[in-house]
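Good morning,

Attaching, inline, the C-alpha cells for the sequence recovery test we're adding to the shared suite. The designed sequence is right after.
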C-alpha cells in the first residue's frame, strides 16, 4: 500500500475560490466583463458571440487550470505527489541518486558423486527453483570452478539470470539442476548464501520516501532519519523497512538499526558492510554507537485447513493446495510471488482473517480456509520489533461435512 499522500488539486483550487468548471468560469468571466463596463447583453448559451468567447477563452483557460496546473504543475511541486521526473529533480537537490536494478549474487553448495574425483563446473551452469506462481528463478555460475579431489562438497559463486529482489530467496529454494552437471548430484543454496542483494529499480514511492528522509536528516545531529538515509542507499533496502531500537544498553547514545527485507532474510554480508561503513569508517554521530542487525524473527507454526468446492478433480485439489502454500509463504516474505497478498511485517498485526479473505478472493474453488498458529485457531500474529516467519507450514484438505 502506498505511503504517499493523495491530493485533489482541482478541489484545492475550487476551495480557494478558483473557478474550475464551465459554469463557474462563465460566471466569473461575465462578472469581469460587467466590471469592465461592457454593454454586451447577449450572453445566453445560444449567443454566437458568447459561444465564440467560450471557445476562445473559457475552454483554453479551463485546460490550463485543470490539465496543466492541477494535473501537472502542482503535483510535481511536492515530493508526496510528484511524478518520476519531478522526484528525480528533487532527489538531485538532496544529492540522492535513484537506485537501479541489481542482480542477486550468492554461493551455491554443490555435492559431488565421488569425493575422490576433481570436478570442474563450467561458467554459466544453471541452478534453478521449482515454479513459484508460474515463475522459475535461475542463477548462473559466474566463473569456472574446480572442486578439488578429496572434497565431497564445494561452492560456486552464482548470479541471478535477471535483476530483481525476487531472487533473494531463502535457503533451499535453488535446488534444481535443469541440465546435468558431470560429477554433481546435488545443488542447494544454504542459509546466508547471498553476498549481494538483488534489487528492483527504485519505485517512485521508494524514492519519495528517501527524499522525505533527506529533509529530516539535514540537521546537525545524527537522528534516526540520518541513519535511515545512510542505510537506505544500499540497493534492495527500503527506507520503510528500517526500524530503530534506541536502547542505550551498551553506552549512552547506543542504538540498533533493525533491517527487514522484502524477500527472504537479511544477509549477514550486508549487515557487516553497513556496520563497517557506519562505525569503522566513521559515518556516525559524535558519541553514537549504532549497530545494524537483521530484525529478529518470531517463528510461527501455521496450519491451514482447507475445504474445497465440490466436483474438483484430484489434480485440481493438489494444484490448489500447492498454490495456497505458495500464497502463505509469500505472505511471510519467503518469495515475491503473489504481490496482492498482504505481507507480515514488524510493528503490526498480521490478520489471518485478511489472509483467508485474500485467498478466497483469488481462488474461487476454495470453499473455506481456517488457520491455526501455534495451536490457537485463527489467532492473529502481533509483532513488535520482530518479523514473523514460518517455522513450519502444513496445508491440508478437510472433507466437507
Amino acid at each position: 500500500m502506498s505511503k504517499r499522500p493523495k491530493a485533489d488539486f482541482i478541489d484545492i483550487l475550487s476551495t480557494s475560490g478558483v473557478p474550475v468548471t464551465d459554469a463557474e468560469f462563465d460566471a466569473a468571466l461575465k462578472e469581469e466583463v460587467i466590471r469592465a463596463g461592457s454593454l454586451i447583453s447577449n450572453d445566453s448559451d445560444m449567443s454566437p458571440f458568447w459561444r465564440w468567447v467560450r471557445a476562445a477563452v473559457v475552454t483554453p483557460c479551463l485546460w490550463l487550470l485543470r490539465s496543466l496546473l492541477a494535473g501537472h504543475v502542482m503535483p510535481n511541486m511536492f515530493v508526496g505527489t510528484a511524478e518520476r521526473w519531478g522526484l528525480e529533480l528533487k532527489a538531485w537537490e538532496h544529492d540522492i541518486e535513484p537506485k537501479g536494478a541489481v542482480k542477486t549474487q550468492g554461493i551455491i553448495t554443490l555435492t559431488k558423486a565421488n569425493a575422490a574425483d576433481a570436478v570442474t563446473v563450467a561458467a554459466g551452469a544453471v541452478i534453478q527453483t521449482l515454479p513459484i506462481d508460474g515463475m522459475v528463478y535461475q542463477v548462473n555460475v559466474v566463473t569456472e570452478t574446480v572442486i578439488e579431489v578429496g572434497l565431497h562438497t564445494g561452492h560456486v559463486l552464482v548470479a541471478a539470470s535477471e535483476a530483481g529482489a525476487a531472487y533473494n530467496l531463502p535457503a533451499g529454494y535453488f535446488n534444481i539442476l535443469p541440465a546435468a552437471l558431470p560429477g554433481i548430484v546435488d545443488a542447494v543454496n544454504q542459509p546466508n548464501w547471498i553476498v549481494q542483494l538483488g534489487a528492483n529499480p527504485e519505485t517512485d514511492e521508494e524514492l519519495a520516501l528517501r527524499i522525505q528522509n533527506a529533509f529530516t536528516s539535514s540537521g546537525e545531529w545524527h537522528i534516526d532519519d540520518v541513519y535511515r538515509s545512510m542505510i537506505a542507499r544500499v540497493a534492495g533496502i527500503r527506507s520503510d523497512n528500517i526500524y530503530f531500537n534506541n536502547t542505550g544498553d551498551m553506552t549512552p547514545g547506543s542504538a540498533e538499526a533493525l533491517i527487514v527485507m522484502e524477500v527472504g532474510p537479511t544477509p549477514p554480508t550486508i549487515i557487516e558492510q553497513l556496520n563497517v561503513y557506519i562505525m569503522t569508517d566513521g559515518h556516525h554521530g559524535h558519541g553514537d554507537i549504532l549497530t545494524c542487525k537483521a530484525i529478529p524473527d518470531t517463528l510461527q507454526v501455521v496450519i491451514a485447513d482447507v475445504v474445497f468446492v465440490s466436483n474438483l478433480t484430484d489434480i485440481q485439489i493438489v494444484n490448489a493446495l500447492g498454490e495456497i502454500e505458495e500464497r502463505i509463504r509469500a505472505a511471510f516474505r519467503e518469495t515475491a510471488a503473489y504481490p496482492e497478498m498482504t505481507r507480515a511485517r514488524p510493528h503490526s498485526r498480521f490478520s489471518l482473517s485478511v489472509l483467508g479473505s485474500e485467498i478466497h478472493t483469488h481462488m474461487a474453488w476454495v470453499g473455506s480456509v481456517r488457520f491455526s498458529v501455534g495451536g490457537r485457531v485463527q489467532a492473529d500474529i502481533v509483532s513488535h520489533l520482530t518479523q514473523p516467519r514460518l517455522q513450519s507450514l502444513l496445508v491440508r484438505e478437510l472433507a466437507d461435512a
